Amino acid sequence: MAAASSLANQCCHLGQGQWSCVHCTLLFSFLKTFSATMTVVIGFEGSANKIGVGIIRDGEVLSNPRRTYITPPGQGFMPSDTARHHRAVILTVLKEALEQAGLKPADIDCVAYTKGPGMGAPLVTVALVARTVAQLWGKPLLGVNHCIGHIEMGRLITKANNPTVLYVSGGNTQVIAYSERRYRIFGETIDIAVGNCLDRFARVIKISNDPSPGYNIEQMAKKGSQYVELPYTVKGMDVSFSGILSYIEEAAHKMLSSDQCTAEDLCFSLQETVFSMLVEITERAMAHCGSQEVLIVGGVGCNLRLQEMMGVMCKERGAKLFATDERFCIDNGAMIAQAGWEMFKSGQVTELEDSWITQRYRTDEVEVTWRD
Amino acid sequence: MAASDGEKNHETGKLHFSLDVPFPSSREAVIALRSLSPDREPRKGGISKQLTVSGSTLSVRWSADEARILRVSVNSFLDHLSLVLETMEMFGPPVSQ
Question: Which GO terms describe its cellular component (chain B) (predicted)?
Answer without folding.
Answer: cytoplasm; EKC/KEOPS complex; nucleus
